[in-house]
Amino acid sequence: MIDSKAVSPSLGVEFTGVADPLDDTFVHRCVEALKWRGVLVVRGLHLDDAQQLAFSRRLGEVVALRGQEIFPISINPEKSTSARYLKGAFFWHLDGTSDDVPVRATTLTARHVATVGGGTDFASTYAAYENLPDKDRERYETLRVVHTFEAAQRLVTPDPTPTELAGWRTQPAHEMSLVWRRRDGRRSLVAGATADHVVGMDPEESRALLDDLLDWTTQQRFRYTHDWEVGDLVVWDNTGILHRALPYDESSERLLHRTTVVGDEAFA
């Protein structure tokens, strides 16, 4: 029998007793868990690539990242050609902030785990908004923020070469509301490493506001940390859950396989 329990007060559900991840009842419970709890965990499920893809397609259309529906996540250059870029994942972020419509969900399965470090942090931007003081809600309601790939990469490489900078700037900047008014009536915050500046605000004041907002959103009461074990499946709602990888050694065997589910709701 499938059972579930909360993994933290503000977000996350862990399922146990999952024999068939394609079972209609389980898939329905996953969809509901993603909407209301943001993150779902199944320990030791040991999906192979074909099974992970089949499960992901029950959640929606799977996008191919750089031509790969199964995308390897590793900062070891021997395991991933995107290793250097993936170091940006050590900073809190949402995926797809340079797109009009961000990806809806992400699945990860653990093939190998780090001996030290390498967990994944999640933080609910729904819970962060719902718990804001009224004065902050009023302040943030009309603000718009420009997000750029460059802002996130400068956290990894603060002194880029002209070639690196030119490459980063091929990705379009994207302006959006700080408070995302969702079509179901809920609201969430759009924050993280790609948040470059608040439109029309003094640069120092803008940076201070965005840093304070990120500190608020990622405080412990809105978070869950997943310590990976081989075979784990973790799925999260990318539109309302910030995430980051915890540091681990570049030579680590840590390897996660990722699928990405296409989004269907544009940023406000």
TrEMBL record:
<protein>
    <submittedName>
        <fullName>Dioxygenase TauD/TfdA family protein</fullName>
    </submittedName>
</protein>
<keyword id="KW-0479">Metal-binding</keyword>
<dbReference type="InterPro" id="IPR003819">
    <property type="entry name" value="TauD/TfdA-like"/>
</dbReference>
<dbReference type="InterPro" id="IPR042098">
    <property type="entry name" value="TauD-like_sf"/>
</dbReference>
<dbReference type="GO" id="GO:0046872">
    <property type="term" value="F:metal ion binding"/>
</dbReference>
<comment type="similarity">
    <text>Belongs to the TfdA dioxygenase family.</text>
</comment>
<dbReference type="InterPro" id="IPR051178">
    <property type="entry name" value="TfdA_dioxygenase"/>
</dbReference>
<dbReference type="Pfam" id="PF02668">
    <property type="entry name" value="TauD"/>
</dbReference>
<feature type="domain" description="TauD/TfdA-like">
    <location>
        <begin position="18"/>
        <end position="260"/>
    </location>
</feature>
<keyword id="KW-0560">Oxidoreductase</keyword>
<dbReference type="GO" id="GO:0051213">
    <property type="term" value="F:dioxygenase activity"/>
</dbReference>
<keyword id="KW-0223">Dioxygenase</keyword>
<keyword id="KW-0408">Iron</keyword>
